[in-house]
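Many introductory courses stop at the sequence. We go one step further.
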Amino acid sequence: MTRNRRRNNPTAPAVTAADRPDPDLSFTAFHQMNRASYVRYAETYLRHRQDAEEAIDSAFEHLLRTWDQVLLTENPAAYAWTTMRNKVIDHARARTRRLPLIDEAAFNTVALRDAVDPIGQITESLALFRALRQLTDRQQDVMVMTYLQGMNAPEAAAVLGMTSATVRSTVRHSLRRLREILGPDRTMEGQR
């Protein structure tokens, strides 16, 4: 904030080392706030808790090594999310696994457990997960966090490094795109 104040007011005092947060403390807090969400996200793609934890630990090791530079980016949370996502992709490729949303996740949905017609629900869920693959990476991330992980817009925004308004807008655009792909009666709105 002091940097922005100085940019807007050249007579404001310069930012000194004492003004900056302790990088180790800020990394520890960031790690504590985000690790569980990152692991849940990675588990959606990698299927196994241990693989998810390995990928996320690798991402956090990278972030720790470069934390001073991460803090200088315009949006450290978004930078960290991209780093984490890339580590999950690398981890999946290293184990020759397909990264896009896993079809098997459809079999664990609440909708399936409560379905009157389980076979019909499986077919519908598989179609939905195939449609999700056609969304952009950002749209997929937002939909995974809001629908599969059950986060509200402010929670997802904090993890993804974006505003709540951006999360809500991305959900709207994603649902519109899913309606185009699946037809108006078959989107995630009914599964929430």
